[in-house]
Design goal:
Order of helices and strands: HEEEEEEEEEE
Number of helices: 1
Low-confidence stretches: 1-23
Helix content: under 10%
Number of strands: 10
Structural class: mainly beta
Radius of gyration: 16 Å
Mean pLDDT: 82
Shape: globular
C-alpha cells in the first residue's frame, strides 16, 4: 500500500515546520482558510456550456484535497474519463444528470452525493431543464487543474 508512504513525509515535514509539496511537487502556498467564490478563478469547460470555479487547491494551500464549483448548462456533458490516483466526490446543489460510474448508470439530482473511487471510469450528461450545479472534491488533488485549459471567465454578477 503506497498511500501511507506518501502521507508520512508530508506529516513529518509538517511536524518539523517544513513546507509541504503541492500535487505537482512544487512548494504549496501558505494555507488560506477562507476562499471566496468571487475571487476564485473560473474557467469555461464543456465546449463553453459550463464553468469550473477553482476554490481550493495547491494555489490556496490545500494539499490533501481540492474543491471546485462545477456548473453545466442544459445538455452539457462530461465525456468518460478516469482519475487514476484521485477519488472524486460530488454534492449536487441543483439540476439533474445521468451518470455512468464503473459501468453503472445512475441519475443524480439536487441533494445527492456521488462517490467515484480512484481509477473508476465515469461520465455525466445534464438531463435537467435548468443548469446542473455541484460541489466537486478530489481527495488527492490534481485533476481539477485540467479546467485551467479553458479560457478564464470574468465574474460579472458577483458570483
Amino acid at each position: 500500500m503506497t498511500r501511507p508512504r506518501m502521507i508520512l513525509p508530508l506529516l513529518g515535514a509538517a511536524v518539523l515546520g517544513m513546507t509541504a509539496l503541492s500535487w505537482a511537487g512544487e512548494p504549496a502556498a501558505a494555507p488560506r482558510y477562507r476562499v471566496s467564490t468571487k475571487e476564485a478563478p473560473r474557467h469555461l469547460i464543456a465546449n463553453g456550456k459550463g464553468s469550473a470555479t477553482l476554490l481550493l487547491n495547491a494555489s490556496t494551500g490545500a494539499t490533501a484535497a481540492s474543491m471546485t464549483l462545477l456548473e453545466l448548462g442544459k445538455g452539457a456533458g462530461v465525456p468518460e474519463h478516469v482519475h487514476e490516483s484521485s477519488a472524486e466526490i460530488l454534492y449536487v446543489e441543483d439540476g439533474a444528470a445521468e451518470m455512468t460510474v464503473s459501468g453503472q448508470k445512475l441519475r443524480v439530482e439536487r441533494g445527492d452525493a456521488v462517490y467515484i473511487p480512484a481509477g473508476a471510469k465515469h461520465s455525466a450528461q445534464v438531463v435537467s431543464e435548468g443548469p446542473f450545479r455541484a460541489v466537486q472534491v478530489y481527495a488527492g488533488p490534481g485533476p481539477e487543474q485540467r479546467f485551467t485549459q479553458g479560457p478564464r471567465v470574468d465574474k460579472k454578477d458577483g458570483n
